Every structure is written in C-alpha cells, then in structure tokens.
Amino acid sequence: MSIKAVIDAQVLFYFHYTYSKVPKLLQILKEDIIKGKITAIIPIIAISELLWKMRKIGKINEVKEAIKRWEISENIIIDNFDLDTLKLMLNNDQSHELHDEIIAMTCKKYGTKIIYGTDIKFKEIFNLDLRTWK
C-alpha cells in the first residue's frame, strides 16, 4: 500500500520548467512515485497553473506530454475540482488563497496530510505536513 501525497504546482514547475537542478527531495519523490511507494495526487488547479506558466514561455507540448504520462500512470491521480472538494471548502473556516485552499481540501478529500510544495501556509493555516525543499 502506498502513501498518498498531494503535489502543488511548484513541484510540477521543477519537473517541467526551466530550473537547472531538481532538489534532492523532489528527486526522491519522483523515484518513490515510479516505484509505487507514493501515490501522487495532482489537483487539476495545479496542472492549470503549470499550463498557464508553460504557455507563456512556449512550452505547451511539454505539458501535453506530461498529462499523457500522468493519465496512464498507476501511481498518479489527477483530481478534478468537484462538488466534494467544494463541500470540504464549506466546512473550512480559514483560507489564504483560493487555489491553495482547493489544494488543501484535496488533501482532506483523499485522507492525507502530506503535501509537497513551498507555501508555508499549507502548514500554518491548513495544518498539513508540508514537505518542502526551501
């Protein structure tokens, strides 16, 4: 049985953007996903952020290829923003930014507190186990 972890857009940027070196934590994450130790849950809003940024620099094909790989991976779940997530938001009394709240509620939806990203608000506001490289 694998551990479930939600992936924020910053992780996707490191894997698909123009960063020169992927941090060791993210290298291990990628290996653990491939080996099935971790099931990565990627909220559609995080993919949307990646798409938006990659379109601006003319690298839309990289996003198209990534989505194809994610769709067939046994260890990746692409999560839609849906009514279940919205209902969790209704029961949430604090927020920071809309996209962060959607991502945090995705953690609750899948019963995990583990999130890979950089925003300390995931820990401070949503009480998640933030796994960060910064």
Question: What this model shows, in words?
Answer:
This protein has a single domain, classed as Rossmann fold, CATH 3.40.50. The protein contains seven helices and five strands; from the N terminus they run E-H-H-E-H-H-E-H-H-E-H-E. Strand 4, helix 7 and strand 5 form a beta-alpha-beta unit. It starts with a strand and ends with a strand. Helices cover 52% and strands 16% of the residues. 28% of the residues are buried. It is an alpha/beta fold and 134 residues long. It is globular, with a radius of gyration of 14 Å. The chain has a five-stranded parallel sheet.
How many beta-strand elements? 5
- List unreliable stretches of 5+ residues: none
User: Could you name the CATH topology?
Assistant: Rossmann fold
Overall SS class: alpha/beta
Q: How are the strands ordered across the major sheet?
A: 3-2-1-4-5
Distance between the termini: 29 Å
Topology as a string of helices (H) and strands (E): EHHEHHEHHEHE
Overall CATH class: Alpha Beta
CATH superfamily: 5'-nuclease
- Cα-based radius of gyration, to the nearest Å: 14 Å
| Biggest sheet character | 5 strands, parallel
